[in-house]
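Quick question: what would this complex look like in 3D?
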Amino acid sequence: MTTATAASIHSLWTTLADSTPGAAGASTSTLFPAPKIEYAQLSPVLIVFGVAILGVLVEAFLPRRTRYTAQLGLSVVGLAAAFAAVVALAADGYASTKSHIAAMGAVAVDGPALFLQGTILLVALVAAFTFAERRLDPAAHGSRVDSFAAQGSAVPGSDQEKAAVKAGFTTTEVFPLLLFAVGGMLVFPAANDLLTLFVSLEVFSLPLYLLCALARRHRLMSQESAVKYFLLGAFSSAVLLFGVALLYGYAGTVSYGGIADVVNGSAKLTPALANSTATDALLLIGGAMVVVGLLFKVAAVPFHMWTPDVYQGAPTPVTGFMAAATKVAAFGALLRLLYVVLPGLRWDWRPVMWGVAILTMVIGAIVAVTQTDVKRLLAYSSIAHAGFILAGVVAVSPDGVSSVLFYLGAYSFVTLGAFAVVTLVRDAGGEATHLSRWAGLGRRSPLVAAVFAVYLLAFAGIPLTSGFAGKFAVFKAAAEGGALPLVIIGVISSAIAAFFYIRVIVLMFFSEPRPGGPSVAIPSPLTSGAIGLGVAVTLVLGVAPQYFLDLASKADVFVR
Amino acid sequence: MSSFPLLTVTAVVPAVGAIATAAVPAARRTAAKWLALAFSLATLVLAGVIAARFTPGGARYQLSESHAWIADFGVRYELGVDGIAVVLIGLTALLVPFVMLAGWHDADVLEEHRPNRNWRPTQGFFALILLVEAMVVIAFESTDVFLFYIFFEAMLIPMYFLIGGFGDRAGAHSEDEQAKQRSYAAVKFLLYNLLGGLIMLAAVIGLYVVTAHQLGHGTFSLPQILQARAAGQLHMSTTAERWIFLGFFFAFAVKAPLWPLHTWLPNAMGEATAPVAVLITAVVDKVGTFAMLRYCLQLFPNASNWATPVILVLSLISIVYGALLAVGQRDIKRLVAYASISHFGFIILGIFAMTSQGQSGAALYMVNHGVSTAAWLLVAGFLISRRGSRLITDFGGVQKVAPLLAGTFLVGSLAILSLPGLGPFVSEFLVLVGTFTRYPVLGVIATFAIVLAALYVLVLYQRTMTGPVKAGIESMKDLRLRELVVAGPLIALLIFLGVYPKPVTNYINPAVKDTLSDVHKTDPAPQINAVAKETAK
C-alpha cells in the first residue's frame, strides 16, 4: 500500500527516497530507474543553459576584445533559438492537446508555461540589446563602455578600479549571467514540484543579485542594492523552503499533483501523518509560506520593501529586465501553485489574496505619489501593477489565467521600454534619474519625451494602449469571478496612479527646461530598437489585442 | 455605394489630417495651418454628406457599420447615427474650422524660442485639434458602449496637451506663475475626467458581466442590448441597473459638467486659449450630455427614472449657481465658463424632464450653446489677445475704438441671454416649456436664471465696451478679415437658427421620440385648470 502511494506520486526528486522502504524484494535496477527526460520538450530551457555555459567558456578562452561581439551574438542567437523552440512546441500542440508533465513530474509543458516562456524569452532578447548598449556613456580612455562596471571585483574608487577603467575592461560576463537567470525563469513558471520550484528560484535569483551589483556609475549604491536584494531574497527563499518542507510533511510528496490529490482527499495522507491532528496546520502554514516566497518575488505588499531600493540602485538595463521578466516568471509560478496545488484551499487563500491585492494596489499607488526619482517611481508603479495582476489571479477562472497572461505580456514590454528611455537621459554623473532634472524634456527632445509619455499613458491604462487592454482583461475576469469590490478599488487606485504618471508628463512638457539640465544621449540601434519595439507592442496590443488575447485564452489550462 | 463606410471615413479624415499636419517640416508652419484647415473643411463636407444621406424618421440607427474587433471582450466596431448624432457631428465639424481660424496665431508665441531644430508647436497645435475632432466624431458615431468609452477617455489626452501646452498668455503677471496655473488647470482637467472615466470603466465591466450572465455572451452593442431587452431576454436586477447607471452618469456628469463636479471647467477654460476653451465647452463637453441621452436613458430606463429627482435638483443648482458665480467673475473667460455651467444645467434639465419638448429642446440647446458660445468666446478671445489681459476691469469703451468687435460681441452676448430671434431662445424656451408641463415649480425657478443671464451678460458688455476709453484701449485695432470670417458666419447661423430651427429639429425629433419610448414616458396630457373647467360648466 505504501509503495503504491509512493510510486504514484514519485518525482524526479523523490524517486530514491520513496522507493527504498518496502521494496526489499525488488532488484537494484528498479530501485534506481534511469530518469526519463523528454529532451525535445525541455529544449528551450536546455538551449538557454547550453548557451550560457558556452558564454562562460567564451569568457575563459576568447581574447578580451572579441568577447563583446561573441557574447552578444551568442546570447541573441541562443535566445532566438529558444524562442523558436517554444513556438515549435506550441505549434506542435503542447500548449493544448499534448500538454503534459515532462522530466518525471518536475516540469510542466502546457499552455501557461509555454506562453510565459515565450514572453520571458522575448523580454530577455530585448533586454540583451539594452545590456549591450555602448554609445550612451562617453568613451573612457578611447574604448566604448556600457552600463556595467569595468571590473566587478574592484573596490569602488580604488586604484585597481582606475586601472581597470584605463585598460578599457568591460564586464562581458553579464551576458552569461543574463542567460542563467533566463534559464531559471523559464523553469520557474513550469515547475511542477516544489523542489524544482525552489531550485529554479535560486537559479534565476543568484545571477540577478550579481547583476544588480555591477553598475558602472554609482557603484556603492549599486552594491548596496545588491546586498539588500540578496539578504531579503535569501530570507524569502528560506521562508519558501520552510514552506516546502511543511507541505512535504503534510502530503508526503513535493509534486504539485500529489499534494493537490491529498488536499482534495482523493489520495490518502501518509499513514504516519494521518493520525496526527496537526495536518491542516501543516498545510495552511506550509502553503502560506510558499505563497509568501512567491509574493516577495512579485513585489506584492507587504513584501515589497526591497523593490524601490533595488530598482534604483541596479544598472538600469538590469532593472528593466528584472521588472519585466522576474514578474512574469513569478506570477507564472504563483498561478500554477494556486491553481494546481491549492485550488482545494480556495476558500482559505482567496480572502487573503483579496487583501494582498487591495493593499498592493492602494499602497503602490499612494506611495508612488511622493516619489522624486524616476526609477523609484517606476518601482512603485510596478508594485501597483502587481496589485492589478493579483486581481486577475483571484478570479480563479480560465479567464483569470488568460487575463493575467495577457497583462504580463503587455506590461513587460512597456516596463522594459520605459527603463530603456531612463538610460538615455544623462548628465555628467551618468543617468539623471531625479525627476526635477526631467523638467522641460519635452522641449529639448520631443521624441524621447513623447515615447516616454506613451509608456506612462500605458502604465496609467489610457484606452488605445496595451495597459488599458490588460487592465480591462483582469478587471473583467475579476468582476466575473465575483470580485467587484476589488475592481472598484482597482479603478480608484488607477486614478491615484494616473496622478503621478501625469505629473511626469506635466514636468516633461509644461515646465521650462532648466539651464544645465541633462542631455539626451543618442543611442545605438540596439536601444532604439528596444524602445521602438516597446512602443509598437504598446500600441498594437492597445488597438488590436484580439490575436494575443486568443493566444492567451488558448493557453489558459494548467496541466495536472 | 451603400457599403461605403461613410462614418468611418468621417472620423478617419481628421485623424489622417492630424498625422499629416504633424509631419509638416518645422519651417513650413503656414502650410501646416492651411493643411489642417483643409482637412477640417473636408470633414465638414463629409458631415454634410452624412446629414444628406440620413433619413429623418427612418430607421433608428442609420449608415451603420459593424465589424468584429475584440471578440474576447465582446467588443465590436459598431457605428451608426441617430438624428441627434448627425446634428452634433455637424456641429463639431462646423465649429472646428472656426476654432482653427480663430487660433491661427495662438501657437506663434511658442515659436519664438526654438529649443531645437524639430520644435514644431504650430504643427502640434493644429494636429491636436484635428485629433480631438476625430475622437469626438467617432464617440458620437459609435453604437458600441466599449468603443464609445475608449474614445471618451482617449480624447482627454490631446485635450490635455492643448490646455497645458498652449495656454493663454494673458492671465497672471509672471511667466512662471502662468506656467504653474496652466499645468494646474490641465492636470485638474485630466484627473477629474479620468476619475469619472475610471468609475465608468467599473460600470462598463459591470454591464459586460450582466450581459454575459444573461445572454451567454458579453456584448456592448447598444442595438443588441436594446433588442434583447425588448425580447425579454435581458433583465437587469434593480440594484445592478442602478449601480451601473450611476457609474455611467458620474462620468458624463463630470464631462458635462454638472454641479458639484464642475470645478475643473473654470480652470481649464480660464487657462486655455479662447479657441481651445471653445473646443472644450462647445464640442468636447457635448459628448457628456449626448451620452446621457444615448446611454443613460436608453440602457438604464428604470434607473434613469429612479434618479430623475436628484438629477433635476442638481441641474437646477447648476443653472442658478453657474449664473450667480458668472455675475461675480472678474475674469472674462471664467465668466464664460460659469455661464456654460449654467447652460449645461439647462441641457440636463431638459433631458431628464422626460418630455418630448424638453429633450428636443436639450438636443437643440447643445447645438445653440455650441454656436453661441463659440461666437461669444472667440470674439472675447480677440479682445483679450489685443489687450493682453483677461480682467474685466482692464477694459472700457471698446465700442468707440473697435466698433466691429463690440458689435459682434454684442450679438454673441445677446445670444447667450437668449434674446428672441437668436438660436438659443428657441431651445431654452423648449426646455422650460418641457420642464414646466411636468414639473411646474422647477420650470419657474429655472426661468429666473434668465434674469441672471441678462445680468452677467449685459454687465460684462457694459463694463468692457461702453463708458470712457480706458488706458491701453485707445490704440486697439478693430477686427481683421480673418476674425470677421470667424465671427460673421457664426452670427448668421445664430440668426438662422433663431428664425428657422426646423432643419435641425427635423433630425432631432424622431430620435427624441424613440428615446422617450425607451424610458416608457409619454408627454403629460394638457391640463385645463380648475377655473377654466368651472367656466366651461
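Answer marked as accepted. Residues 219-251 of chain A form the longest helix (33 residues).
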